[in-house]
Write a structure and sequence with these properties.
The complex is a heterodimer of chains A (149) and B (265).
Chain A: E1 2-7, E2 10-15, H1 22-28, E3 47-50, E4 53-56, H2 62-65, E5 69-71, H3 77-89, H4 99-113, H5 119-125, H6 137-148
Parallel strand pairs in A: 1-5
Antiparallel strand pairs in A: 1-2, 3-4, 3-5
Helix pairs in contact in A: 3-4, 3-6
Chain B: E1 2-8, H1 13-21, E2 26-29, E3 41-48, E4 57-60, E5 63-67, H2 72-77, H3 79-82, H4 88-93, H5 99-102, H6 107-112, H7 119-126, E6 130-133, E7 137-140, H8 141-146, E8 155-161, E9 167-173, E10 183-190, E11 193-199, E12 206-207, H9 209-218, H10 222-235, H11 246-262
Parallel strand pairs in B: 1-3, 2-3
Antiparallel strand pairs in B: 4-5, 5-8, 6-7, 6-8, 9-10, 10-11, 11-12
Classes of the chains: A alpha+beta (149), B alpha+beta (265).
């Protein structure tokens, strides 16, 4: 079946199987920033924004995305760069595999909770973004910096 | 592995039901696909409810209607629900994996699937929720859990009475935030009538009717909460799974249930 979705502001069509998930479709369209982590909806590495909300692309049927707006890190613009810069500044990046999903979740969080989110709110919001390299402390500092600017 | 041969996005409930009945191996997609994709299943025709406008939370007279496709996150953050049921829904949802997961998972899917590991199902049982199926067929959630499902059925919405006058509470024991709970419990009181439900036993949530009757007769105090909690733990059965032994669940249940009941004071 064919679907048409708007990815990072541009209309894209894709030929998919009904059981394809958005993760596979986005990667086949060239958006390699969308990573396959656990593939079971637990780790958050595959996070993309659908209509501005963070979702797990490994568990989102591509057929369901037909007609919707999807944002990956490639299209998240200047705001994503600010987040990334704040994280890098705190020495957070190690393997970098969790970063695209994390940055998109942070953007979703800022939209929902605003700049005044407490540390507990940040931790609760980002509970679904796992990182095997760090202990999350640097990320929390980086996020705090990003929100305060 | 999940295989879907054909996919349809009907625009009305009638269309959805017609599609469902058109194929013996059809299946409703009413949730976030999160559990479905983990299984090994072939679906000839997937009937996705995503375009039916069932993602609503609507106060009505003396009740609230929650559409079957309302996501966990929308329920968790809904401004109306935050002020209802003592704000219990936020507690019932907030430790379920992450926000991305809760933006996909729906109340209808967890309820209709009778998931035993579900936090919302324990809450629904304590609130005496009513499921409304296609064709306005209504059933108390407690009754639904005990009965076999019909082959062709579509859950349209969940109705919960007295949102503004019901006090409710939820709590769970889990190894880490984001993981499935080891055991959970919920309780509610409205017009002096108490309900206590315990879930992830690891079987599906169940009412502790003996403990409920005790509280209905004696009222709730710190002392009766302790007694009722022990009664509830004694009357329910617990078993072992990957996350905990039945003995552990049995041992911690009284404290968890007491904690939930004390929140109602």
């Amino acid at each position: 079946m064919n679907i048409t979705l708007t990815v990072n502001g541009k209309k894209r069509t894709a030929e998919i199987s009904p059981d394809d998930f958005l993760l596979e479709t986005l990667r086949s369209l060239g958006f390699k920033s969308v990573k396959r982590g656990c593939d079971t909806g637990s780790c958050g590495l595959c996070t993309v924004l659908v209509e501005g909300k963070p979702v797990l692309s490994c568990s989102y049927l591509s057929a369901r995305a037909d007609g919707h707006e999807v944002t990956t890190i490639e299209g998240a613009g200047e705001e994503a760069k600010k987040v990334a810069s704040a994280l890098v500044g705190e020495g957070v990046e190690q393997c970098g595999f969790c970063s695209p999903g994390l940055v998109l979740s942070i953007l979703g969080m800022k939209k929902e909770l605003g700049k005044g989110a407490t540390d507990d709110q940040i931790k609760n919001y980002l509970n679904g973004n796992l990182c095997r390299c760090t202990g999350y402390e640097g990320q929390l500092r980086g996020i705090r910096q990003y929100l305060e600017v | 592995m999940l295989t879907i041969r054909e996919y349809a996005r009907p625009q009305t409930m009638d269309e959805a039901m017609t599609l469902l009945k058109s194929n013996k191996k059809s299946q409703v997609l009413g949730g976030g696909m999160l559990m479905l994709k983990l299984g090994d299943k072939t679906i000839d025709l997937a009937v996705d409810l995503v375009d039916l406008g069932l993602d609503y939370i609507k106060p009505i007279e003396n009740a609230v209607e929650i559409g079957a496709m309302a996501t966990f996150r929308s329920i968790e953050t809904d401004p109306y629900l935050k002020n209802c049921f003592s704000g219990m829904w936020s507690d019932a949802m907030k430790y379920i994996v992450g926000v991305q997961f809760r933006n996909l998972a729906t109340l209808g899917a967890t309820a209709y699937s009778k998931y035993a590991f579900s936090d919302p199902n324990t809450a629904l049982l304590a609130l005496d929720a009513e499921l409304v199926m296609y064709g306005d067929r209504r059933m108390a959630f407690n009754e639904f859990l005990a009965k076999r499902k019909r082959r062709f059925d579509i859950l349209e919405k969940i109705v919960i009475k007295n949102p503004e006058t019901t006090k409710a509470a939820f709590d769970s024991i889990r190894r880490s935030k984001g993981d499935f709970a080891v055991i959970n419990a919920a309780a509610s009181v409205c017009d002096g009538q108490y309900r206590i439900s315990v879930g992830i036993r690891p079987r599906v949530a169940k009412l502790a009717t003996g403990a409920m009757a005790y509280l209905n007769e004696n009222g709730l105090t710190p002392e009766t909460a302790k007694t009722a909690a022990k009664m509830a733990a004694d009357e329910l059965d617990f078993a072992t799974n990957l996350r905990a032994s039945g003995e552990y669940r049995k041992a911690v249940a009284p404290a968890l249930i007491e904690r939930v009941l004390l929140k109602l004071l």
